[in-house]
Design a protein that fits this description.
Layout (H helix, E strand, L loop, with lengths): L8 E2 L7 E5 L14 E9 L2 E9 L3 H7 L8 E7 L2 E11 L4 E10 L3 E9 L5 H9 L1 E2 L20 E2 L9 E4 L7 H5 L4 E9 L5 E8 L5 H10 L2 E3 L1 E3 L2 E13 L3
Parallel strand pairs: 10-16
Antiparallel strand pairs: 1-9, 2-3, 3-4, 4-8, 5-6, 6-7, 7-8, 11-14, 12-13, 12-16, 15-16
Length: about 250
């Protein structure tokens, strides 16, 4: 059971999580609920991409009013666990390589708003049911689970996109953070990275093709590590695929 010490929930996840701690921007609107912390835990396993966003606030119900992160046109149902009411939204994404199912679960605890995204190629994936059925509110006596850093090293052959039967399907990609140093020095341009979409569903072997100063290259690498995808296939089996990504940094 995955239970980060600073969170109010515990859940069974199918793979090791990549953890990101986001800086809190200055909120100019005093009427909006202030975000105290924003953590993300995401990864892949058993054919399932999972992304857990945690927003801490004094009044998470007010935070929920302006932080939707869902499409209101999706199929909706209400779930309950440990006395918590959760909203589950479902839709199908028609990707050019293969359609996949996307589920988004939103709920509030005493001090947090949680948004959990679950994406699978199989509409009836048992991994989705495992996550949803395992979700619970942590009790004060429950011990937290230390989050171990994920090791991105993989072995085996790496194929070009024209050597696979089906290319990797990217389903989650966060934008890189514009560093304070980058803004102060008005650094603009692009960062180009070569990387591998590994057979295990994680990004590995990131190398810089074009970089920028003032921490922007490092910011792009951090964002690239949190790209999530369904691995490429060769004759029905998951394989690692080479890829190149580009991040643009512009000041407006």
């Amino acid at each position: 059971m995955f239970a980060p010490p600073e969170e109010e929930i515990a859940v069974q996840i199918p793979g090791p999580p990549i953890v990101r701690n986001f800086p809190i921007p200055n909120q100019r609107d005093d009427k909006q609920e202030k975000i105290l912390t924003h953590h993300a835990y995401d990864g892949y396993g058993s054919g399932l991409v999972f992304v857990i966003d945690s927003f801490k606030a004094e009044h998470p119900e007010k935070l929920s009013e302006h932080l939707s992160m869902v499409d209101k046109q999706d199929v909706f149902e209400r779930l309950f666990f440990d006395g918590v009411a959760a909203e589950l939204f479902r839709n199908t994404v028609n990707h050019r390589y293969a359609p996949y199912s996307n589920r988004t679960l939103r709920f509030m605890t005493s001090n947090h708003l949680y948004v959990i995204h679950l994406m699978s190629l199989d509409e009836s994936s048992p991994a989705v049911d495992q996550v949803l059925s395992s979700l619970k509110v942590r009790k004060p006596e429950d011990r937290g689970t230390p989050v171990e850093p994920y090791s991105a090293s993989v072995s085996g052959p790496v194929l070009n996109y024209n050597e696979v039967t089906r290319r990797a399907i990217v389903v989650w990609k966060r934008e890189p953070r514009y560093t304070d140093e980058g803004r102060a020095h008005k650094t603009t341009g692009r960062v180009v990275l070569d990387l591998v979409f590994a057979y295990n569903g994680y990004v590995s072997d990131i190398t810089t093709v074009e970089g920028l100063e003032n921490g922007l290259t490092e910011s792009a690498i951090e964002a690239a590590r949190s790209i999530h995808f369904f691995p490429a296939q060769k004759d029905g089996k998951p394989v690692s695929q080479r890829n190149r990504v580009e991040y643009n940094f512009n000041l407006y």
